[in-house]
Design a protein that fits this description.
It contains 17 helices and 19 strands. The protein is α+β, with helices and mostly antiparallel strands and about 500 residues long. It has one domain: Cytochrome-c3 Hydrogenase, chain B (Orthogonal Bundle). The strands form 7 sheets. The chain has a 4-stranded mixed beta sheet with strand order 10-9-6-14. A hairpin with a 2-residue loop joins strand 2 and strand 3. Helix 4 runs antiparallel to helix 6 and helix 7 runs antiparallel to helix 14. The longest helix has 27 residues. It is globular and about 70 Å long.
């Protein structure tokens, strides 16, 4: 029996992230997901004025700045009992939809599908089509995606002045109102992106595709027209399932979503929040008090069991060696390891196609990536609906005076769905300043280490048991890692038998 240790560097996944894997006879028998950098935002915010969170937290992540700003704003509004006007809610929702949509498309065609051009697949019958469509920075689909997403993210700049790190959301509303010019500019962008999505990604009508409600209908729809089979989605589905990605990367069956597109009256969201219990196969109401963070295997000052973010601590205690191996905490929902992201959102929101695929095949690498494209299609239609709703309230206020001279003491939280899933900010104010600030990111949910009970995090679970036929070119690991949406290009290093190997994921 041969055993090697594999070190995988994942750069800029809300910080630098690594996998360390133990392989026995080519099979992963253990996995450690390692956050290599101390984030420190929680400690940085202590003692500051509450409004400082609106400037500081969008800089947690260069991809999800709008989401962090939204979460921080919602936390402050809850603390002070502020209800923003409908005008402001629609603008906030629209900008977050644009940020998420562009991220979904870039992740799929700039980061995931280029791995289909790996040399291991050079002899595959689809190799030439894959290269023409998905070759990094050169493929036809890739170049179209760059143009479409550049325009999409411009929507945030239209309403917020800039992207990333915008600061246009304020307790009580937004800094500047929408107007007819901004509405028309945004509509033109959405119309253009939809046309590209239908022609290039789907090879067919978006509404028809979104109406598909089961796996049989999906594959029958694609096979019914050559344009659909040759589309980016058709090519992705044919190849990914041919190489067995629908059978790889199964992790936690428990899913978490904070809901998509907040309703103006504060009663919930267009896509509801919830927790999908993988044991009962039922969606349960979200209870944020069920969220707790463990640090048993993290480089933080230890405390027993898990703590809710209002009670948790983020005090560095770096002690290399032993069984503590990461700067990431291990968030859990009750006693459950969960995954979050497009698959969770759509299943909890009741998407019939995603529900059918999940029930029949379980979570897997192909389904997570397919769900991201499914979400992109639904977000396109939701963005148009949001824009139409915004148009009806242009004459209404975009901000109200919160009337706050001194922020009240108390606890609050803000929950949103970022591009990669459930994002939460928990805040405590004492004597008018921040006494505690805890952020639980989507990556923390998915890429967590083991918890106090020794349960592996979701990413770790999705890798354990994987057979790696070729350690010199472990493309299977690349597919699984990519399906969880790391933010930027990463280089994977394999170290074993005193020989360093590298693999570009």
């Amino acid at each position: 029996m041969s055993r090697i240790t594999v070190d995988i560097d994942l750069n800029r996944v809300e910080g630098d992230l690594e996998f360390q894997l133990d392989l026995e006879d080519g099979v992963v028998v253990d996995a450690r997901c390692i956050g290599t950098l101390y984030r420190g935002f929680e400690q940085l915010l202590i003692g500051r004025a509450p409004r400082d969170a609106l400037v500081i937290t969008p800089r947690v992540c260069g991809i999800c700045g709008t989401a962090h700003l939204y979460a921080a704003t919602r936390a402050l509004e809850q603390l002070a009992g502020i209800t923003p006007p409908e005008h402001a809610v629609h603008v906030r929702n629209l900008c977050l939809l644009a940020e998420t949509l562009q991220s979904d498309l870039r992740q799929t065609f700039l980061f995931f599908t280029p791995d289909f051009c790996n040399q291991n697949y050079a002899g595959h019958p689809l190799a030439a089509e894959l290269t023409q469509a998905f070759a990094p920075l050169k493929g036809d689909v890739v170049r179209g995606c760059l143009k479409a997403t550049r325009e999409l993210i411009g929507i945030v700049a239209i309403f917020g002045g800039q992207w990333p790190h915008s600061t246009y959301m304020l307790p009580g509303g937004i800094s500047q109102p929408a107007n007819h010019r901004r509405i028309l500019e945004t509509r033109d962008i959405l119309v253009g992106v939809r046309a590209w999505f239908e022609q290039t990604v789907l090879g067919g009508n978006l509404d028809d595709w979104l109406a598909l409600d089961n796996a049989e209908a999906l594959f029958r729809w694609e096979a019914a027209a050559p344009a659909r089979e040759r589309s980016a989605l058709g090519l992705f589905n044919r190849f990914a399932r041919d190489i067995g990605l629908h059978q790889l990367g199964k992790g936690s069956s428990h899913l978490l979503s904070y809901g998509v597109n907040h309703l103006p009256d504060g009663s919930g969201s267009a896509w509801p929040a919830g927790y999908f219990n993988g044991d009962t196969q039922q969606v349960e109401a979200l209870d944020h008090l069920q969220i707790n963070e463990h640090v048993r295997h993290s480089w933080f000052l230890d405390y027993p069991g898990g703590r809710h973010p209002w009670e948790g601590e983020t005090i560095p205690d770096h002690q290399p060696g032993g069984d503590r191996y990461t700067w990431a905490k291990a968030p859990r929902y009750g006693d459950h390891v969960v995954q979050t992201g497009p698959l969770a959102e759509l299943r909890i929101a009741g998407d019939s196609l995603i529900s059918d695929l999940l029930a029949s095949e379980g979570d897997n690498t192909w389904l997570r990536q397919f769900a991201r494209l499914r979400r992109a299609g639904r977000l396109l239609t939701l963005a148009v609906d949001t824009l139409n709703a915004l148009k009806t309230v242009l004459d209404q206020p975009h901000i109200i005076d919160p009337g706050i001279d001194v922020w009240p003491d108390g606890e609050s939280f803000g929950l949103v769905e970022a591009a990669r899933g459930a994002l939460g900010h928990w805040l405590r104010v004492k004597n008018g300043v921040i006494d505690k600030y805890q952020i639980v990111t989507p990556t923390a949910w998915n890429a967590s280490p083991r918890d106090s009970a020794g349960r592996h995090g979701h990413w770790e679970q999705s890798i354990i048991g994987l057979r790696v036929p070729d350690p010199d070119n472990p493309v299977e690991i690349g597919h699984i890692v990519r399906s969880h949406d790391p933010c930027l290009v990463c280089t994977v290093h394999f170290i074993g038998q005193h020989k360093k190997r590298s693999f570009n994921v």
